[in-house]
Amino acid sequence: DADVTQTPRNRITKTGKRIMLECSQTKGHDRMYWYRQDPGLGLRLIYYSFDVKDINKGEISDGYSVSRQAQAKFSLSLESAIPNQTALYFCATSQPGAGSGYTFGSGTRLTVV
Amino acid sequence: SQQGEEDPQALSIQEGENATMNCSYKTSINNLQWYRQNSGRGLVHLILIRSNEREKHSGRLRVTLDTSKKSSSLLITASRAADTASYFCAAYSGAGSYQLTFGKGTKLSVIP
After folding, report:
1. Residue A36 contacts residue A108 (beta carbons within 8 Å)
2. Cβ–Cβ contact A34 with B under 8 A
3. Tens of pLDDT along chain A (113 residues)?
4. Which of A43, A106, B18, B67 is least enclosed by beta carbons within 10 angstroms?
5. How far apart are the CA of B3 and the nearest CA of chain A, in angstroms?
6. Is the peptide bond before A8 cis (omega within 30 degrees of 0)?
7. What 8-state DSSP symbol labels residue A53?
8. How far is CA B78 from the centre of its chain?
């Protein structure tokens, strides 16, 4: 099993719909992140969490919300999806001081029509 | 805001040649990281170099860091077709920041 698992892998949804992307990890890492990737724009941070009670906005949090249900689970919600939220979404984890960088999931490709 | 910026945006080489990618960043850093992404897949951490290190090796990878020029380079020696991927540098966006920001990447194509 993958260290960081994202579901679903692909999703097509309609404008205005609420959608949740889920992420779970078996790394035992405290820190979890959500990024989106758009062609030509690289990765941009949406939200991050350092533990279950700690949630922080990233560079582009508008239109998104998150929930850290447990140390191993971090979900991203789009309350009312819009077409410019069409992107590749990645969940990542890290452990402070480990010096080993982030571990990424395989991504969720979201299309809003 | 973007911390790292890679150069070139795209690079095409023959198998067996060396590939060099560069990264410039804006603010002081504690460390700089390099990641690889195969098409449409998640990023994979390759190597981390700390601000007090000038060079680091891992297999066929060699990373250098010049803090005076705020730049880093990633060298892949004896490239293989399997090295075809996008490569990203990443650093924390400023002192005390917990936000790891990524550049837009260098797309490397290794031709068999």
Report:
1. no
2. no
3. 679 999 999 999 999 999 999 999 999 999 999 999 998 778 999 999 999 999 999 989 999 999 999 999 999 999 999 999 999 999 999 987 756 789 999 999 999 99
4. B18
5. 11
6. yes
7. T
8. 17
